[in-house]
Design goal:
Distance between the termini: 9 Å
Number of domains: 2
Strand order of the largest sheet: 10-9-11-1-12-15-2-16
Shape: globular
């Protein structure tokens, strides 16, 4: 029986008054997800602050500490040798030392940001910068050197002085001036040799093809030597998963549920969950022949836009997992499985 594991990034949430004190996941009309929960098994596992830390522990069974910048450099295939440092770059506005992470970037602003990066790239030339910017103005940067900056991580509020940016200060200021206030803040930095050391310890990984638009999920897959497929969004991801499941087991990562949470619009998050469910329902007959699992990596408040560390739900149907589930898939109870043991439990026949 083929296996499809679907990760809904940041889909868990807090209870919201406009949904009668329910979460967006709980309030959404989602026949596919709720049917899977009813017909299979539901439970909880350990949520993590970020997707890549959740995935590394899920897929290896151990909580390896690999910096976000390093993982995303793998995902975008940027050079990350032992003599380089990698950072994740996130759009932000910095006023009087206060960082406002900027998730509601428009298409025009994103275009201006990319032009500003090109214009100011020479300010980093001494470090041989290699940078790629992807959706939402987010990016990944690798530079030569040994120095590693410990800078604030999104999405929570942060304070940052210009001096803390070190060699990136002039670049960040130049980008901000070129865009009228939007800049890129590096964080999640790590040295390439850290990844090399971790890989030596990992003996075995599951035989899954990873499908995602996110450098985080793709980066974990490439770091672990798994097949990866980059897609532009969840609709194409679901379509590709439906095709690839004919040949082997698949891990599908859907990032949009986290993206919409950071934009602080609960109604849009609910609508997105319903859209994803409808797309999954289109392949319902084909997926009946598979073992299907739904996972969530962490909570993401669609009110504050911040990540939430919490126990997160999972549901699995097929194989030995038939019957005994809850009436819906949401932030529920059920038996708790440590994250490092969850994949083995799900894949058990």
């Amino acid at each position: 029986m083929r296996k499809l594991i679907i990760l809904l990034d940041g889909a868990a949430d807090e209870r919201i008054s406009i949904f009668n004190n329910r979460t967006p996941l709980e309030a959404a009309h989602k026949e596919f997800m709720d049917g899977l929960a009813r017909e299979g098994k539901v439970g909880t596992t350990d949520g993590k602050d970020y997707t890549h830390t959740f995935l590394v522990e899920l897929l290896t069974g151990k909580p390896y500490d690999i910096p976000r910048g390093v993982i995303e450099a793998y995902g975008l295939e940027l050079p990350i040798g032992e003599d380089r440092v990698a950072y994740r770059m996130t759009p932000a506005k910095v006023r009087d030392g206060h960082v406002e992470w900027y998730y509601n970037i428009s298409c025009d602003e994103e275009m201006f940001l990319q032009r500003a990066i090109i214009k100011n790239r020479s300010k980093l030339s001494q470090m041989d910068p290699k940078m790629l910017v992807y959706h939402g103005g987010k990016g990944v940067l690798t530079v030569k050197g040994e120095d590693l900056l410990d800078l604030p991580k999104p999405p929570g509020p942060a304070e940052l002085s210009a001096d803390e940016l070190g060699p990136f200060q002039e670049f960040a200021q130049g980008v901000s001036e070129s865009t009228g206030g939007i800049t890129l803040i590096p964080w999640g930095g790590g040295r390439g040799r850290v990844a090399v050391d971790v890989r030596r310890e990992i003996a075995k990984v599951p035989d899954l093809a990873v499908i995602s638009k996110s450098p985080s999920a793709l980066g974990v897959g490439r770091f672990l030597g798994m097949e990866t497929v980059r897609v532009p969004g969840f609709k194409e991801g679901i379509k590709v998963a439906g095709q690839m499941i004919e040949k082997g087991d698949v891990f599908l990562h859907i990032e949009e549920t986290d993206d919409v949470s950071h934009k602080c619009n609960p109604k849009n998050k609910l609508r997105l969950i319903e859209d994803i469910d409808r797309e999954l329902s289109r392949y319902g007959k084909r997926l009946r022949e598979c073992q299907v699992a739904l996972l969530i990596d962490h909570g993401a408040s669609s009110v504050t836009g911040e990540h939430m560390r919490m126990k997160v739900p999972f549901a699995v149907r097929g194989g030995k997992w038939v019957g005994g589930g809850d009436d819906s898939f949401h932030e529920n109870g059920g038996e708790h499985f440590p994250l490092g043991e969850l994949l083995e439990t799900i894949l058990e026949e």
